[in-house]
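Holo prediction — adenosine-5'-triphosphate.
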Amino acid sequence: MIERGELHPIMRSTVMAPLTFYLKGEEATQALGKALADILEKGLTLHLKGGLGAGKTTLTRALLRGLGYQGRVKSPTYTLVEPYTVTLDGEKVELLHFDLYRMGCAEEFLDAGFRESFNGTTIHIIEWAENADTLLEPPDITVSIEFQDDGRKISLTPVSPKGSACLQKLVFRQE
Ligand SMILES: Nc1ncnc2c1ncn2[C@@H]1O[C@H](COP(=O)(O)OP(=O)(O)OP(=O)(O)O)[C@@H](O)[C@H]1O
Ligand SMILES: [Mg+2]
C-alpha cells in the first residue's frame, strides 16, 4: 500500500528533486552554463529567476558559448528578446533569450507575437518571466539564483517530465 504523501513508484521515476549548487564566482556560473548546454534539447523552456545582477544573463551567455555560439551575447534588457541560431545534434535550432524586466504589461507579450515562437522546436530562456503573468506556459526547468556570501546559490528545478529527463543528464562537478 502507498502511504499518504508518498509518491507512487511510477511517479518517483519521473519526478526529481531540485539540484542545488553553490557557485563560488563568475567562473563557476560559466561552468554550469556550459554544462547546461550539453543537456539542452529543442523545444525546451527555462525560466531564470533571481534579482538584478544575480547572474541570469551570465549563465545564458555561457550556455550559448557552450553551444558554440561565438558572436556577441548582449542582455535583452531593452529589446526584450535576442534571437540566436544554434546547432544541436547537427540540426539548426532557434534559441530566444528573453528579458521581460522592462515589459510594461503582460499583454505586450501577446502584442509582440512572442507566443507564436512556442512551437515545440524553439528553445526559450526567459529572465523575469513573472512579468508575463499567466500568459506563459509553465517552463520545463526553473533556475533560481540567490546571492549567498560572495557567490550564488543556484537551484535547478524540473517542472515537466522533459525537463526532468534533461536534468538527469546534467554533469556538473564543483571543485
Ligand atoms: N557565482 C557568482 N559569484 C559572484 N558573482 C557572480 C557569479 N555569477 C555571476 N556573477 C556576477 O554577477 C553579475 C551578474 O550579472 P548578470 O547581468 O548576469 O545578472 P542578471 O541576473 O542577468 O541581472 P538582470 O536581472 O539585471 O538582467 C556579473 O557581474 C557577474 O560577474
Ligand atoms: Mg540579465
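READOUT: Residues 23, 25-26, 28-29, 50, 52-58, 75, 99, 101, 127, 151-152 surround adenosine-5'-triphosphate (ligand 1) (CB under 6 Å).
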